[in-house]
Design goal:
By secondary structure, the protein is mainly α. The protein has helices spanning 10-13, 18-21, 31-59. The protein has a domain at 30-59. The mean pLDDT is 80. Keywords: Membrane, Transmembrane, Transmembrane helix.
């Protein structure tokens, strides 16, 4: 078995799709906002799930 020792970049394998794999500038700035969005989404999912279970218990 032969192992490649040199790192391979995605741009070398797919030159026409290189723009899809580049990091966009400024993406690292909004980590706090992204975390906040996940927390809010989790809270909404929890509340909706509790309401759904309450409705299902009464109507099934």
């Amino acid at each position: 078995m032969v192992q490649v020792q040199d790192p391979i970049r995605i741009e070398d394998l797919f030159p026409s799709a290189a723009g899809l794999f580049r990091r966009r500038p400024g993406r690292g700035r909004s980590k706090g906002l992204r975390l906040f969005a996940w927390v809010v989404a989790g809270a909404l999912a929890t509340l909706a799930g509790r309401q759904l279970m309450f409705w299902a218990d009464r109507n099934i």
